[in-house]
Structures are given as C-alpha cells and as structure tokens.
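Kindly review both lines to help learners:
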Amino acid sequence: MKIDFSLTLPIRTALLTVSGIRVEESPAGYRRLEACAEAYRARFPGASPGSVPGIEYARKLFRMLKIEPTRHRPSSEALLNRALKNKPLFSVNTLVDVGNWCSLDFLLPLGIYDTAKIIGKIILREGREGEHYLGLNRRQVNLGGRYLLADEQGPFGSPITDSQRTCVDTGARETLCIIYAPLEYPEEQLEQNARQMARRISEICGGEIQFVNLVSGEEQVG
C-alpha cells in the first residue's frame, strides 16, 4: 500500500507498514506483553501510573487533541494501570498483542490497521458533528469535535479507540501502524520506537518492513 497521509496538528506521528504478515491466535505476542507488564511492576512496586516517567507525553498529546486524559485515559496509560495493579491483560491475536506490548513499552497510544480495509488517502483531522463509528469495544464512538483518522470512506480510527471496519484479524496480510506523540517527544526516540515495533511485528508475525517515516506538524507523506 502506498501511504498518502496528512495532518495539520502540532504533534508527531510515526507511520510504519509491514507486508507479508501472518496473524494468528497464539500467545507469542501476549507473552511479551505480560513480560513487559511484569517488568513495570518490578521496577515501580505500588506506584500509580502518574508517577512512572514518560507517562506525561501521552497526557500532553491528548490535551493537544482536545481530549481530557482524566476522562478518557490514553490506551497506553490504561495498559500501564492494569500492569501496575496486576490485573489481567487481554489477548486478541499476535499482531494486536504486539501492538499492546509496544504501546505499554513506549507509553504512547498507537493504532494498528489492516491496509486492505483502508480506502485511499488518510488524514488526521477534527471530527464533524454527527460522525461516528462502531468501535473495537462494539460501542458507537461519537467523533464530533474529536480528532480522528479518516480515509476516503470516512472515519476509521482515533487515539481513543479504533473502528471495527479496519481492525486486524487473522486474514490481514499487511498492516499500517501509527504511533502518536506530542511535539515535545524526542524525534529520534519516536523513530527508534517505530523501527523497534516494525522489527517486533516481523519477529512475531513474519513479513517484511516496507515503510517507516515520521510526520510532524503540518507535514504530509504521499
């Protein structure tokens, strides 16, 4: 898939694609997610998410996107909260589990999509009144006034929760992943995160890394 992506916000995003993947219902990715959670508990025993270094980046990002993080917790912080409290983490499939592992490790929200389900150009923009989609939690997500990812068919993702329409299942053969960060997040670190995520996907799901790029501010790829 050729990536044609644009945004008009003062944030950073990392985009990556891996093709030729095999998505399975196996614990390979989930074991890495659990190990990451265990490492946080060992390093920060009895801590709250707010006291863990790095958590502030996702909160700054959400405020930049007009999302109050005290009402809508970033997915990375939600994972950290469960990890620190030793609550069960959920397994979906190898690719989604790798995504959750990376989100917890990097403490940044991210999205994982089946590129075969994305139509045309992608833009990160503010949602219009009445826009919504069926979320991964099988609930209607209202998007008016919130920032979202849209293709030529309409909204399909957001830093809060993504849609059923472009979700990754065992039929996926190529994935597009987007990592979100505020401008304060070091550019070199974000690129390192993206390349590490691509390598992890290839390790667990096979496939070849096709594309890694950063888009910041009002830049465009495509």
